[in-house]
Amino acid sequence: MSVLEWSQEGVPLVLIHGFGNDAHIWDDFAPTVAPYYRTLAIDLRGHGDSDHDPERRYDYAAHVADLEAVTAALGIERMVLVGHSLGGRVSTLFAAAHPERLAGLVIVDAGPDLDVRGTSRIATDAERHASSTFASPAEYGVLLARAYPASAPEVIDRMARHGVRERPDGRFERKTDPAFHGARGALSAEDREALEAETSRSLWEALSKIGCPTLLVRGAASDVLSPDTADRMEEVLSNGTLTLVPAASHSVMTDNPEGFAQAVNAFVLGED
Fold first, then answer.
1. pTM greater than the 0.85 cutoff
2. Is the pLDDT of residue 87 over 80?
3. Neighbours of 82 (CB within 10 A)
4. What fold is seen in the domain 3-118+200-268?
5. Cα 224 to Cα 99: distance, rounded to the nearest angstrom
């Protein structure tokens, strides 16, 4: 597993990205907490500079097991965990399984039930471009600019640079394993619905078991986490607080980096 570290002193603060992103998605936020926490971000399997899994084991259990293994290898026993989207779901399951290890939890635009508008948009884009190649990172950036219309050009450029690797033929391919959705795509519509229902059930149950201080961050214009689901999550969490970040959709930390940092730092640093 590939890990980025911004600092090595203090209580660990572990950042987990969402599907199709990598550890560099936190490049704007991480420096704001690095003076106060041991700040690090993990590339999930099949993403960024972590290895692809030849057996296509990309279910939530595999990601939770990876988080257990990485934190053990780094000597991390107790931490603040921050997860976005896919990473938010992984973080929720990890926190429920290891409540004694969580000093705090931040769930960013993720929940047990997801709005089909956003999930369909993300899945369609992923399937359409899973095996695409590009003449340069800048060409990939053109695609990203359409997928992240609220993000600043410099953020898009950074995502493009870190999101692709050069092939032997000189073209560039996305680092995310194109097989990530392969196993799910092979399921029938009925089986996919059953799988998502079971995932929802397990995540609602997990939320009810989390006792540490928890911040739920929702992009005010999110098409993935609905207001109703976010409100219900706040009710289910025994020690949870919901906050909205304005001028942001699902990718809260890239759509409004300053607003995201302000919201999360008010929680992890006690800043107003």
1. yes
2. yes
3. 30
4. Rossmann fold (3.40.50)
5. 26
